[in-house]
Amino acid sequence: MLSFSVPLGKLVRTLSRLRGGGSAFPGLVVEKIDPGFMQRTLASLPHGVAVVSGTNGKTTTTKMVVELLESQGLKVFTNRTGSNFTRGVAASLLGEVDWRGRLDADIAILELDEAHAVHFVNKVQPRFSLLLNVLRDQLDRFGEIDKTARLLEHIASKTTDTVVLNREDPRVARIARIVHGVDALHHPNVRYFGLDESLRSTFPNDDEMRTSGSGPSPSGTSVAAAAGEVVDLPAADVVLRRVGAQDADFEFDGQTVSTEMKLRGVYNIFNAAAALSLARAVLGTGPVDTPKLVKALADVAPAFGRGESLTVDGQPLELVLVKNPSGFRLGLKSFPAGGYATMIAINDNYADGRDMSWLWDVEFESLREDGVEVLTGVRAYDMALRLQYDDVPFGVVEPDITAALRTFINGSRGKPKRIFCTYTSMLAIRRELAKITIVEVVS
Amino acid sequence: MTSEAQSTPEAQQSKGTLRVLQLYPREMNIYGDWGNALVLKQRIKWHGYTPELLEYNVGDEFPGDIDIVVGGGGQDSGQVVIQDDLQARADHLRELADAGAPMLVICGLYQLFGKFFKTSAGPTIPGIGILDVETHGTDERLIGNVIMKSTEFGDIMGYENHSGQTTLGPGVEPLGIVTKGAGNNSKDGHEGARYNNVVASYLHGSLLPKNPAIADFLIRTAAERKYGTFVPGAPDDDYARLAREHAARRPR
C-alpha cells in the first residue's frame, strides 16, 4: 500500500492540474489511501514543523519566515496560498516529495487557518508555532473571538519546542499562561515579538476597536488596563522600534538594526518582527548570518494581494486585501488616500464572510476628502450605505466587478489607483486585470 | 462625483436636541453595533434635530435626560463583566422602559434585558427583567442572513449569530416572524421582542442602516416624548432600499 500511495497521489495531482483546478483533491486521495502519509513525511524533517496561525497576516508572515530561513541556507517546505488546511498541506507535500515519498527539506513552515491548525496539530505536533493575533474575522465560522483564542491555545499546547507570541495582543500574550501550565514533559519555551510604545496606538487589538463614544476609533488603553489588571509587558525577543516610509528599525539581541523594506503597510512590517522572531527560534543556538538575515527581510515582497502593486496604463494599481475591520482600518491607515483614485469591492461569499456587520466597525473618514470613485461587488450597496453614513462622497455603484473595473480604469486615467477588496472580489479583479496587465492569477 | 450625504444646512435652526445613550459600548460592541449608534446620530441630524451621543460603561455615572437607549451584543465574557453593573442600573432602566423611553437592544443586551440567560456552561446570568423573555444557552449556533415580517416595520433584515435561544413570555410580542433564518430560537419562528417602546432583536448587520423604519420609530418616539411632536426631515434612503434588495437575494 505504502509504495503505491505516493505515486498514485502524484498522478492524481498531475491529472487534476491538467484539468485546471482542484488543488486539494489529490490531498484527499492520499489521505484516504495512506492516512499516515503527511505525518510520516513531516516527521522526517530534521528541524521539524513550524505552524503560523492567527487572524491577519499569515500569508505574508509565512513567506517572510521562509525567505529568512532560506537566507541561512535551510531548505524549506511551505504550503501555497489557498491550501492552509490539512488536506491542502498533504496536496502541497505531494507536489514536493519524490516518487518514493521523500521530502528534500530541512523544515516545514506551514500557514494554517486557526480551526484547521487544531486538526493539524492533533496529527502532527509542531516544534514551533507563531501566533499572530486574534481579531474579528469570519465570526460566522468560528463563533466568538474568545473561541478563536482557545483554538490558538490548543496549537500552543501541542508545540514541543518554542511558541512565539504577539506581546501586544492580550488574547495572544495570555496564551503564555496556558503554555506554562502544560506538564513538564513538553513545556515549550515562550518568546514574544513586540512593538515600541510609540507604535502601539497604531495596532488596536480587538477590544480597543471601540472605546470612545465618537466612533470605532482605537485608544491607548487595553481592556486589561481598563479592568484594573496590572499590565507588565514581558521582554520581547524582537521589537519593532520605528516604521519609516521605506525603512524600519528592529531591535534584537540588545541592538537596533535599521533596514530598508520593500514591504508596505505598518502591519506587514510588524509581522516582519514576528517572522524574525520565529526564524531566530528555528536557528536556535546555531550560527546566524545576521547581515544576510536582515538583507532577506529587506527584500521580502508582499504576498499576493497584500499591498501588491501592479501597473495599469503606466500608473501603479495597488490591491489591498481587506478581510475584517482591523485589517480594513489598518489598510486605510497604511495607504493614505491622497492623490489616489479609489475603488472598494465587497463580496459576501463564504470565503469573505457572509456577515456585513464588519463594515460598520471600520471608520471611513480618511476617504472623505478624496472620495471613492467606484463601489463594486455583491454587497456594493451595503458599502454605499456605509459611506453615506460616514459622509464620504462616492461615484459609481456597480455590483458587477468586470463592468466596475472598466469604469474605474477608464475614469481615472493618469492617476495612481488603489482597490480595497475582499478575498473573492480580489480573485475576480485579478482575473480581469490579467487580461490587460501582468498579474499572477491564483485559482 | 455626487455626495450622498444630506446634512441639514448649518444655518437652519435645530428642531431640538435628542440624547442617545450607548450602553456598555466597551464590552458590548460586537458585530458592528457602532452602526446602530451612528445611524441614530446621523438620522437625528437629517431629520433636523441635534444629536448628542453619550456612552455608559461599567462604573460610570449614569447620565440624565436620556431620550434613546441603544445597546449591543457581546461575547459571553463581556456579559459576565457587565452583569453586576447592569443589575445596579436595573431599576432605573426599567423605569425608563416602563415610562415609554425608546430603546434598542441587540443580541447580548437583548438577552440580559430579559429574565435570565442560563449559559450552556452552567451558570445563570440574571437579567434585568424589562422583557418577559428567557434565554437558554445551547451548543447549536444560529448563524446566517435573516428576513422577517413585522406588521409595524415591514420586512426587517439582518444577520444573526447566537447560541443562546430565547423564548417569549406573555408580556412581550415578537418583533417579527422569520421568513428566512432562525430568529429567537430554532423552534417558533419568532424574532426579537417588543415591549412598550423597547425594540429587542438578535439581528446585526448592523440592524438600523438597512432598516431605517426602526431607526425612525426610535427617533420619532423620542421627539414626541420630549417635544410633543415630531417633524420629520427627508433622509435619502435610496441606498438603504438598494442594499435591502440585494441583501434579500443572498443565501442564508
Descriptive labels:
heterodimer; A: 443 residues; alpha/beta; nine-stranded mixed β-sheet; six-stranded mixed β-sheet; 17 helices; B: 252 residues; disordered N terminus
Question: Helix proportion of residues of chain B, in percent?
Answer: 25-40%
Low-confidence stretches of chain A: 210-230
Please report the two chains with the greatest interface, counting residues with C-beta closer than 8 angstroms to the partner's C-beta.
A-B, 48 and 48 residues
Strand order of the largest sheet of chain A: 2-3-1-4-5-6-7-8-9
Task: Give the gist of this structure.
With about 450 residues, chain A is an alpha/beta fold. In chain A, about 40% of the residues lie in helices and about 20% in strands. Chain B is built from six helices and twelve strands.
How would you portray this structure in words?
The complex is a heterodimer of chains A (443) and B (252). Chain A is α/β, with parallel strands linked by helices and 443 residues long. Chain A has helices at 2-18, 25-33, 37-43, 58-71, 86-96, 114-123, 139-142, 145-158, 170-173, 175-181, 223-226, 266-283, 290-299, 325-334, 380-389, 401-411, 423-433; strands spanning 49-53, 76-78, 107-111, 128-131, 162-166, 189-195, 238-243, 247-252, 255-260, 306-312, 315-321, 341-345, 372-376, 394-398, 417-421. In chain A, the strands form 2 sheets. A 9-stranded mixed β-sheet of chain A has the order 2-3-1-4-5-6-7-8-9, with helices on both faces. A 6-stranded mixed β-sheet of chain A has the order 10-11-15-12-13-14, with helices on both faces. In chain A, strand 2 (76-78), helix 5 and strand 3 form a beta-alpha-beta unit. Chain A starts with a helix and ends in a 10-residue tail after the last helix. Residues 210-230 of chain A have low confidence and may be disordered. Chain B is built from 6 helices and 12 strands. Chain B starts with 16 loop residues before the first strand and ends with a helix. In chain B, helix 1 packs across helix 5 (212-227). With 252 residues, chain B is an alpha/beta fold. The longest helix of chain B has 23 residues, at 76-98. Chains A and B meet through helix 15 and strand 14 of A and helix 1, strand 2, helix 2, strand 7 and strand 8 of B.
